[in-house]
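During data preparation, a discrete fold description was generated, as reproduced here:
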Amino acid sequence: MALANALASQEEPSDEDRNNIIQLIQQAIREAKNATALDPNSPIAWQNLASVYRQLIGLADDAESWTVAAYTQAIALDPVNPQLRLDLGGVYFSLGNYEEAIRLFSQAVEAKPDWANAYYNLAAAYQQTQAYPQAVQAMRIVVDLLEPTSPDYQTAQDQLKELEKLAESATPPAQEGEQLPPVEGEPAQPPELVTPTPIPSPSIEPIQLPDGSGIDLPAQPETQPQPEEENPTEQPQQPTPTP
């Protein structure tokens, strides 16, 4: 995929380069899909497939929907994994769907309340929707979770000050919203704070991949209709003999 992205970044790729791009992309997709076919219940396999599709957003048609579908399948198989929700939230964030990003980032911090980077992404998503008080609250948690000696600590402090200024001048509608749950436990080791990067704009026209490049979700077992319970046949009453 790295070579395919490098070729796609050229200003005017030749027809040969375009063919090479398509072949490399197909190979990456085929290998990732084979892994999900061999072990359809592996969330890691679906996460890897989602990562492949994610690199194609902006380069190949329908890559966004394939990415979301693969991450959704991974989450269904591993619902307590906060990383998957952070990854899918990052996809929505990069696509400008901040409401969905907030929903998934919120689920990530609920699953792992001591994860500073999840709160950091949540603060960024709130900021994009101008929900500045909620962004401030999330960023304060980031600061609380980071060690003062962490290289990210000062970055979080600076961004918190900027958000507080925005919150002070925010209009009342932007101040409404749900409160974040309190953080329990000791501060975690300082992770690297990373927000989703925007989807790059390729220098070539989107590629139409051949049929079969998209996601193939496992077939769900068909539910057989249950036969309706028949009413028991009433036994005919015997006539009562008359004396």
Notes: The domain at 97-199 is CATH 1.25.40.10 (Serine Threonine Protein Phosphatase 5, Tetratricopeptide repeat). Confidence is low (pLDDT under 50) at residues 199-204, 221-227, 232-243. The first helix runs from residue 2 to 8. The CA atoms of residues 37 and 94 lie 29 Å apart.
